[in-house]
Amino acid sequence: MQEPIIQIKDLVAAYGDREVLKGINLDIYPGESIAILGRSGCGKSTLLRHMIGLAQPKSGEVRIKGEDIGSMNEEERNEVLKKTGMLFQSAALFNSMTVGDNVAFPLREHTDLEESTISIMMKMKLDLVGLSGFDDFKPAELSGGMKKRAGLARALAMDPEILFCDEPSAGLDPIVGAGLDNLIRRLQKAFNMTIVVVTHEMESVYIIADRIAMLHEGRILAVGTKDELLNHPDPRVKQFLNREADDEEMDRDSYLKTIMGKDE
Amino acid sequence: MTEIANKLLGNIGRSTLDVLQQLRGVRSLTAEAGYWMFIAPFRSQKLKWKNTIEQMVKIGFNSMPIVLLIAFFVGLIIAMQSAYQLERFGTTIYVANLVAVSLTRELAPLLTAIIVTGRSGSAITAEIGTMKVSEEVDALQTMGLNPVRFLVVPRLLAIMIMLPCLTVIADLVGIFGGYVLAMGTLDLTSVRYIDQTISALTFRDLSSGLIKSVFFAFIIGMNGCFQGLSVRGGAEGVGKSTTRSVVVSIFLIILADVFFTFLFFSTF
Fold first, then answer.
1. Which of A227, B71, B85, B118 is deepest in the core (most CB within 10 A)?
2. Cα–Cα distance list, B164 to B87, B104, B168, B207, B235 (Å)
3. What is the pLDDT of residues A18-64, one digit of tens each?
4. Is the separation of the CB atoms in B108 and B166 below 8 Å?
């Protein structure tokens, strides 16, 4: 098999004393699309933040193309980040700039291209996500789905090898959400990108992902294709895939302790 | 009783730790801003002049009307207050000295700094804080662009250039305010008043005021940016940090003022 493009080894992450990720191991291969799936609060966003170097691991490492991004200095890390794109949950467009300037921003800062070339590239990227003609709009004038598309165009500005997406279809109606998922999938195939998607929505996963990594309480529970996971022996995997709620058993003693505030 | 004492000591300890942690944060932000201001430009990573000039217009130029107005009125007030005292000795000509010296050494830098804190320090915190909350700061970072270089340095540079400029303008307008009052109500000629003002002022008076204002600018800019970057938790967080930014800036400005005034008082 090929060399993995992203390699996560024994990654432990903590906020203060609370460990959020408790030793993650995961290999992601070039050209594949992997979904990191898990319940809210299981650490998937934290995992993503570590993959793009927004957070420093407590121990363990994240290697992108063989290089540990946690131990890089800022300049080296920025070189790696130029070749990655990130689509944020809230799109995170710069609200003070027009949509066109948002998409052109990475090109202006990282390349020495002529302004006319940048303008053409910006229009191409906007066209790619179906937003041609919207370059003079401010982000506040766009709908939620359009903002995400614009965010996607900005993430693609530097022709990234790896695209990270944080909950791409969250907060969108099913039709717009599915449209965005399809768009991401189509672009991934067209540009042969590696995609890492963090999500809790099964519908999204089925459209986007080749492989699924299931995260549960800071550990990877299962990795595999959709069919492999459906036949996984662990009941928690099945529970998630089938959208079953937790059994709401109530332990009367522990409840009493909780509300009385006594730990013994 | 012991419970209350415990709580009290606990609170004191917690706030002390809190303050220490903030100081550490400010120190590292200062170091980083210093790097992007003075070292990085020589490593082919240029300063963001376009952003800086935009900020200079926002912070400096747009503050001019209010600074002019307040400086003029303060000049009037000081002239009236000192005339009230000096009339008893028949030495109203010294109104010119009092107005000129108190404005240039103290009031113009201080008032300008406080106006700019309220107008621009709060805006800096609110802007950066909102960007932080809406993940825009993270977005910069994931593009491989340093937020301190793009957000903090242009604002800090802009305010450190513009506040001394505003102070000079406030000096002039304040002195003019005093002149207007003297001409209107005191029995002085224009030439004498102007002569007296010029002979009263020394280079020291002007420079000590300007040195102060550079440090005030640093306090407003640094604290504004730091509070903005440490915003947590949505719109409410932005509001809280903005309030804190203004309160802390004004407090630190007064503190610095005491320090520098003492320094100039004992050395000059």
1. B71
2. 34, 11, 6, 10, 33
3. 888 888 889 999 989 999 988 877 888 888 988 888 888 888 889 98
4. no
Within this chain, do residues A22 and A119 fall inside the same structural domain, yes or no? Answer: no
Residue B261 in contact with partner chain A when CB distance is under 8 A: no
| Contact list, A164 vs chain B (CB under 8 Å) | 142
CB contact under 8 A, A92 and B146: no
Q: Do A104 and A135 belong together in one domain? A: yes
Residue B233 at interface with chain A, using a CB cutoff of 8 Å: no
Q: Which of A74, A79, A106 sits opposite B143 (nearest CB)?
A: A106
Q: Are residues A52 and A166 in the same domain?
A: yes
B141 at A interface, C-beta within 8 A: yes
Write down the ipTM of this complex: 0.84
Q: Provide, as residue numbers in chain B, all residues whose Cβ is less than 8 Å from the Cβ of A86.
A: 139, 142-143
Note whether A79 contacts B: Cβ–Cβ < 8 A: yes
- Per-residue buried b or exposed e for A206-230, using 16+ beta carbons within 10 Å of the residue's own CB: ebbbebbbbbbebebbbbeeeeebe
Whether residue B27 has pLDDT greater than 70 = yes
Q: Does some domain include residue A192?
A: yes
Å between A223 CA and nearest CA of chain B: 26
pLDDT, tens digit (0-9, with 9 covering 90-100), for A190-228: 888 999 999 888 888 888 888 999 888 888 888 888 888
A184 and A69 belong to one structural domain: yes
Any domain includes A215: yes
Average pLDDT estimate for A139-149: 90
How many domains, in total, are found in chain A? 2
* B201, two tokens: 């002022």
Task: For residue A132, tell me if it sits in a domain.
Answer: yes
Does the residue A253 lie in any domain? no
Supply the CATH number for residue A204's domain.
3.40.50.300
Which residue shows structure tokens 């996607």?
Answer: A152
Question: A150 lies in which domain range?
Answer: 93-159
A132 with A150, same domain? yes
Judged by CB atoms closer than 8 Å, whether chains meet at A82 and B139 is answered as no
